[in-house]
Design a protein that fits this description.
Number of helices: 4
Organism: Aphis gossypii (Cotton aphid)
InterPro entries: GTPase_Era-like, KH_dom-like_a/b, KH_dom_type_2, KH_sf_prok-type
Protein name: KH type-2 domain-containing protein
Pfam family, one: KH_2
GO molecular function: GTP binding; ribosomal small subunit binding; rRNA binding
Distance between the termini: 51 Å
Strand content: 15-25%
């Protein structure tokens, strides 16, 4: 039996794993933090914040889409993300009173992204009740 809370049996697992492990070269250099693309990290971060800050089934009825991603010469990141809602009711829940809920979510996401990328991030979240394929895209390719 193993209990991480009471530190019972965890040393047995550690010993077993150390016995079974073999030295090998690293897959990535020490400078690489992840093999995920930056814009995918952004989308995952925003998804997780939506799950944290929206009630009940609301986050499951959203689709997050990267509309614009650019790194400036100064190293700042400018991002526009579309939040597609499948109904006007869901859109109102996401927006909150006078847009206060989505502003708070965007502010929180922006702070998380600054911590992740260690640079200034400027995030704009646009909420729409239009299906994803009917929204006019600002760019075809991410930079």
């Amino acid at each position: 039996m193993v209990s991480a809370i009471h530190s019972l049996g965890s040393s047995d697992i550690e010993d077993y794993l150390l016995q079974k492990s073999k030295p090998s070269p690293w897959m990535f250099s020490k400078d690489v933090l992840t093999d995920k693309e930056d814009h995918k990290l952004v989308l995952h971060m925003i998804d997780s914040i939506l799950y944290d800050y929206l009630p009940n089934e609301v986050p499951y009825n959203l689709e997050v889409e990267m509309e614009y991603y650019e790194v400036s010469q100064e190293g700042n990141i400018h991002i526009v993300v579309l939040i597609h809602c499948n109904t006007p009711r869901i859109e109102k829940l996401v927006m909150g009173k006078k847009g206060s809920r989505i502003r708070n979510i965007a502010k929180k996401a922006e702070q998380h992204l600054r911590n992740l990328f260690l640079t200034d991030v400027f995030l704009k979240m646009v909420v729409t009740d239009k299906p994803k394929n009917s929204v006019q895209h600002m760019t075809d390719n991410l930079t």
